């Protein structure tokens, strides 16, 4: 539950009891319950409005599911292509860097500083 363990929950309840007293805790719980119910109803209303708007524009839930599935498939393909090409790209770059190092060494030879 929100990453809160049992001991932490007991501590929070203890603090709430100390701050508000045993008289106010049931009222606070009822108020929070009502607020959560209103929030749930509001989100359900928003979802239904979005669904009605989509259906009015000719999109049903199956079409929306197909569209999101296709988008997710394209995203995963793009990720796999990028990740696959990046390893090859890095390998090719390292090979080219090694070749350039060898060329520089063969041209300059061992260079010693003169004092």
UniProtKB/TrEMBL annotation:
Entry's InterPro entries?
Answer: TatA/B/E
The source's domain of life comes to Bacteria
Q: What parts of the sequence cross the membrane?
A: 6-22
State the compartments where it is located.
Membrane
Which GO terms of type biological process are on file?
A: protein transport
Classification via Pfam families = TatA_B_E
Keywords annotated in UniProt: Membrane, Protein transport, Translocation, Transmembrane, Transmembrane helix, Transport
Protein topology in the membrane: Single-pass membrane protein
Presence of the UniProt keyword Transmembrane helix in the record: yes
Listed PANTHER family: SEC-INDEPENDENT PROTEIN TRANSLOCASE PROTEIN TATA (PTHR42982)
Q: What is this protein called?
A: Sec-independent protein translocase TatA
């Amino acid at each position: 539950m929100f990453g809160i363990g049992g001991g932490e929950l007991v501590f929070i309840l203890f603090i709430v009891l100390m701050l508000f007293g045993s008289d106010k805790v049931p009222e606070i719980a009822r108020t929070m319950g009502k607020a959560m119910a209103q929030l749930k109803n509001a989100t359900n209303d928003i979802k239904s409005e979005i669904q009605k708007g989509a259906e009015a524009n000719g999109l049903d839930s199956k079409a929306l599911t197909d569209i999101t599935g296709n988008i997710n498939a394209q995203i995963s393909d793009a990720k796999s292509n990028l990740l696959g090409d990046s390893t090859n790209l890095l390998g090719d770059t390292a090979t080219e860097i090694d070749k350039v190092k060898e060329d520089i060494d063969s041209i300059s030879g061992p260079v010693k500083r003169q004092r």
